[in-house]
Amino acid sequence: MSTHPLNTALAAAGRGLPVLPLRRGKIPFGNCPTCAENACGGRPNMKTPGPCACPAPCHAWAAATTDPHTIGSPAWRRRWREAAAVAYHPGGAGLTVLDLDHADAVAWARATLPATRTVATTRGEHWIYRGAMRSVNNVRDGVDLKSTMAYARWLDPGTGTMTALPDVVRALAVKEPAPARPGPLAVTLTAQGGACRHRTPVFLERGIAMAEQRISEARSAVHTAVYRTFLAVLSTHGRCGCLTDTHVNRLFAAAQTKGESARHCTEAWTNARTALGM
């Protein structure tokens, strides 16, 4: 960034864009002691606000502001000195950013979508439309929609005339149904000397309950925690046929409560089965 992040932020705020500072890795700061190191229970890396008890929202898109007094306050100045970039909340400015992450995504947009203001990024382009909508990631390969409850990196004002948000872009938020979740394993083994002990209701229920608790208590690296929990459940119960749809649905529900998507749950489950040779 050629100018100091604070100056860049003030200039962007002057254009009506609610801004916030980003650390390395394009991750927001926790702007108060309660939220430092994600202590308030926000999502991993504080990309979205958690159940914060602060007097006002203090991190991620919820902290974005156009108020120059807040942006230049002593508390924020400390963050700007450490900041690696400036971000803004598109939805807060009534905008939608189509984040095109590589050349193929840019080529698709040029061939498919109405022209609008564009900003060059490190790997692709941001296409900015006038109008807000819900934010959705991975609407197609290399394409994210960033608007309400999301933030985008501020690089420069861009070039071209901004176009009203078209229906073809809004339609991208309507995702195709998630791939079918893998069902319980059909493999059935019998323990020596009698029926499989995993079918004992108490043993199985305790295992599933412990897995749900492990997922719900994850405070960081949720993706990894979910995968490792699925791996542990499958390694213990996966080869005897005792897992039912009800058990698997409970594990998926626990993961989704922590913010995992159905697709991520399916991938974690499939990867765990593959790792165990199932």
UniProtKB/TrEMBL annotation:
<dbReference type="Pfam" id="PF09250">
    <property type="entry name" value="Prim-Pol"/>
</dbReference>
<protein>
    <submittedName>
        <fullName>DNA primase</fullName>
    </submittedName>
</protein>
<feature type="domain" description="DNA primase/polymerase bifunctional N-terminal">
    <location>
        <begin position="9"/>
        <end position="187"/>
    </location>
</feature>
<dbReference type="InterPro" id="IPR015330">
    <property type="entry name" value="DNA_primase/pol_bifunc_N"/>
</dbReference>
